[in-house]
Amino acid sequence: MHAVQVVAISGGKGGIGKTNVSVNLGIAMARLGRRVTLLDADLGLANIDVLLGLKPQATLKDVIDGNAELSEVLMTGPGGMRVVPAASGIQEMANLTVQQTAAIVQAFDALSQQMDVLLIDTAAGISTDVMQFLCAAQEIIVVTCDEPTAITDAYALIKVLVQNYQIKRVRLVANMVRGEAEGHRLYEKLESVCNRFLDVSLLYAGAIPFDESVRKAVQKQQPVSVLYESSPAARAFHRLATTVDSWPIPATPSGHVQFFMNQLLQSA
Length: 268
What we know:
Elements: E1 5-10, H1 18-31, E2 36-41, H2 48-52, H3 60-64, H4 70-73, E3 75-76, E4 82-84, H5 98-111, E5 117-122, H6 128-136, E6 139-144, H7 148-165, E7 169-177, H8 180-197, E8 201-209, H9 212-219, H10 224-227, H11 232-246, H12 257-267
Parallel strand pairs: 1-5, 1-6, 2-4, 2-5, 6-7, 7-8
Antiparallel strand pairs: 3-4
């Protein structure tokens, strides 16, 4: 069976640039030759389509309701990355039933042969649906920035993953920092606290610098990796993609989208 790298990206609070990281990481990985699918799993407040300037005719809700096939919902983004848009502002999408989650399982299993990487952009926070997505993935990336509330909320997210869901490994991306050194310092702050109070391996994935080009790109509804390819942020996303691409894919069934979706169903 074809193994798929499944990476979930989350954060303790909104406003830390989590979705920007997901989108630009996906584009950068697609440019490495990987067949990338990006799932917008912020099921109640989806915004990846807005960030990319896409206009979906159908969303994941239509797949769940049986009104569309996943192949009909998929949209092609920059670099050939495929995007699964979620419905925005529909409250029931944030509270899926087991049957609805099963519909997602079946839909993704049918397309697993057509992807190498599945990136899941979750909602921020510690809600049950966020935890379901995170616990089903092979790798969890927590995005944070160097602000007291962002650091506190990132730690809270990691604490819940460890104490309530027995997660043993989490990777950190330091976003909007003033250089690699600040990124390392931010990681060391969190690692120190995690080592003291939690049984978890917190690993440093990389840093994305604060870059005015990101804000300009968002305003134009385009990813910074596309609009400003030579910007510091775009170059950092390329480095992050190279790092993520080097992570080993488990040889066990957890290397498959089928397993990811079944885990999602079981946790639901």
